[in-house]
Amino acid sequence: MRMPTRHLLGIESLHPRDISALLDLAESYALLNRSGKTRRDVLRGRTLINLFFEDSTRTRTSFELAGKRLGADVINMSVSTSSVSKGETLLDTAATLNAMNCDLLVVRHKSSGAPALLAQKVDAAVINAGDGMHEHPTQALLDALTIRRHKGTLEGLTVAICGDIAHSRVARSNILLLTAMGSTVRVVGPPTLIPSGIEQFGVTIHHDMADGLRGADIVMALRLQTERMSGGLIPSAREFFTFYGLDAAKLAHARPDALVMHPGPMNRGVEIDSQIADHATRSVIREQVEMGVAVRMAVLDVLARTATPNA
Ligand code: CP
């Protein structure tokens, strides 16, 4: 397969056919990873730079692992010890990396649109690893792969995305992907954490967990993104947990075989109870992390092929 564009900036630019093809390739990488084998020929001679202006555990590590398993030379740029701390701009930093003939540039930034801006300025394929409140496309792809492995399909499922929808790029990318693939998506949270106009994305809004989770196949809990909140949007974390924290009583409204998901990092006792987060049969949170490596291998593979017309 080839991507419709040279970059992966969001789910918005992907056709359902591209999403299915990426998930199929990621599934093959998931099986390869479980077998302990690698495919170092795929990105041999290519250079991948991780440029993270925001903290990350899962995304940065999994892009590094994905690149290495495919044979790329992988560089992790530490922004705090780079010349960014001396005032170098985002564009100058990117131009500097571009001059080193980097092939794949993975970017996380607090500003929505930063990866798209870089994509106009560099020769490398740019991958959005999370930009502000905009998109986190590889997170939505890994979530979709995890769901598809358990449910066999994305079509016809009911997915409840709960908590801080307003500040979540994960919610936005998941809504775009899941609705495009035929799932019904509900967003569940207090009015202060649901952005106005979100129903235009084809979702229904619920302010009560029992109502929002009723009959759901998938329940996705999201972290309160306090770093993006400008004021007190919830009375307290304790009160938030009482009304919106995912615990056994609230999960009982979903289907008995409903899966519990969380993109991480989790705040236990705020948006999710430990008993549910660690549930042996319901929680697929660790599998999400595992699928993150496979999805990122698929994305790197396809973008490298897209950049090389005869590959
Ligand atoms: N889900 C996610 O993006 O996690 P990190 O912030 O640890 O990368």
UniProtKB/TrEMBL annotation:
Carbamoyl phosphate binds at residues 58-59, 108, 136, 139, 264-265. It comes from Acidiphilium iwatense. GO terms for molecular function: aspartate carbamoyltransferase activity. Keywords: Pyrimidine biosynthesis, Transferase. It comes from the Bacteria. Catalyzes the condensation of carbamoyl phosphate and aspartate to form carbamoyl aspartate and inorganic phosphate, the committed step in the de novo pyrimidine nucleotide biosynthesis pathway. The keyword Transcription does not apply. L-aspartate binds at residues 86, 169, 223. Heterododecamer (2C3:3R2) of six catalytic PyrB chains organized as two trimers (C3), and six regulatory PyrI chains organized as three dimers (R2). It catalyses: carbamoyl phosphate + L-aspartate = N-carbamoyl-L-aspartate + phosphate + H(+). InterPro entries: Asp/Orn_carbamoyltranf_P-bd (IPR006132), Asp/Orn_carbamoylTrfase (IPR006130), Asp/Orn_carbamoylTrfase_sf (IPR036901), Asp_carbamoyltransf (IPR002082), Asp_carbamoyltransf_Asp/Orn-bd (IPR006131). Its EC number is 2.1.3.2. It holds the Pfam family OTCace. Residues 155-302 form the Aspartate/ornithine carbamoyltransferase Asp/Orn-binding domain. This is Aspartate carbamoyltransferase. Belongs to the aspartate/ornithine carbamoyltransferase superfamily. ATCase family. Residues 6-148 form the Aspartate/ornithine carbamoyltransferase carbamoyl-P binding domain. The lineage of its organism: Bacteria, Pseudomonadati, Pseudomonadota, Alphaproteobacteria, Acetobacterales. Pathway: Pyrimidine metabolism; UMP biosynthesis via de novo pathway; (S)-dihydroorotate from bicarbonate: step 2/3.
